Amino acid sequence: MLPLLLVLKLSSIPRYGLKPNDAILAEERHIPMYTEMIEKYEVDYTAGGACQNAMRVAQGIGKRPNTFAFMGCIGKDKFGKILESKAKEAGVLVSYQYHETLPTGTCAVVITDQGAKRSLCANLSAANCFSREHLDSPFNQSIIKNAKFFYITSFFLTVSPPSIMQIAKHACENNKPFTMNLSAPFLCQFFKEPMMAAMPYVDILFGNDQEAVTFAKENNFDTENVEEIAVRICNLPKENKKIPRIVIITQGHDPVVSVTGGKVTKFPATSIKAEDIVDTNGAGDAFVGGFLSQYVEHKPLDVCIKCGIYAATEVIKQSGCTLPENAEFVM
User: Fold this and answer.
1) Per-residue model confidence (pLDDT) at position 322
2) What's the rounded Cα separation, in Å, for the pair 142 and 134?
3) pLDDT at 26 over 90
4) Catalytic residue among 222, 254, 285, 302
């Protein structure tokens, strides 16, 4: 997904049926919410999109411009220009598909409990119109050919599964790590078929505990134990036998669970005072961005995970998925 975030902080979630710590796609009943937020409340605007967030964070920590590239679909409007400028400012190489009529996607983010909980409702609009044909342009083929690693969120399952499978198979055939994120519980429920079609190609899978439990339920694992779930996912069928699968599950303030080769390793999360938490939205994206910033440099797994924890810890102290200007990961 590639939406502009409308961030609203409230003591409680208003109507429209939003749930704490959840992410959903907008239905017809949600559409008036965007105008209501702008007209009745003071909102912050943040360049978003889960994958683009991760790329901006990875680029911000990695420093070298154009290390990370991003593709998505936006509208030819002011919000699209904001998204593009933010990505380029961060040093990300972008190759957008531009929709002629639909506006750039937007996502309402309601933050409650002093920043501890967030609810997302995305109106994809142009972001929902990315087509596989965009991958076929000579410029984009060059990006794909030269890329050494790939990352796709499961949000993209709602947009273009054929694009996912094209990249997944390219990665497998060329022995390039293909990484993916469970992204939201509803995706594990309602987009299970395309998710499971891509799963054999996934070399690194990210997710949080809620997503993992939902995934387990939908796949009849008969357990809600996060460590057991991670092991079960790690042992699912896999196409590329040359790259051992890694499963990484975050658990908020509880330890990060990592599984590879059947071995479970836990990494403690960094403790933060409640008053220092500004916005938990984007913490998962930041974790992935931090992880990938080290992974593409072939750093050890523990360093990658610790950088992910560092990035997530720094981001939740800010509004939106943004690193502080002086952010620097040091082991």
Assistant:
1) 87
2) 12
3) no
4) 285
Better-scored residue on pLDDT, 33 or 11: 33
What is the gyration radius of the CA atoms in the chain, in angstroms? 18
Mean pLDDT, the chain, integer: 91
Q: Alpha-carbon distance 183 to 211, whole Å?
A: 7
The values of phi and psi at residue 38, to 5°, are -70, -40
Residue 239 · residue 201 · CB < 8 Å: yes
- Residues with Cβ < 8 Å from 325, sequence gap 6 or more? none
* Entry field: residues in the chain: 331
Residues 6+ apart with CB under 8 A from 307: 61, 290, 291, 293, 294, 299, 329
Does 285 participate in catalysis according to the annotation?
yes
Where do we find the tokens 């429920």? 189
Residue closest to 2 by CA, chosen among 46, 43, 35, 39:
46
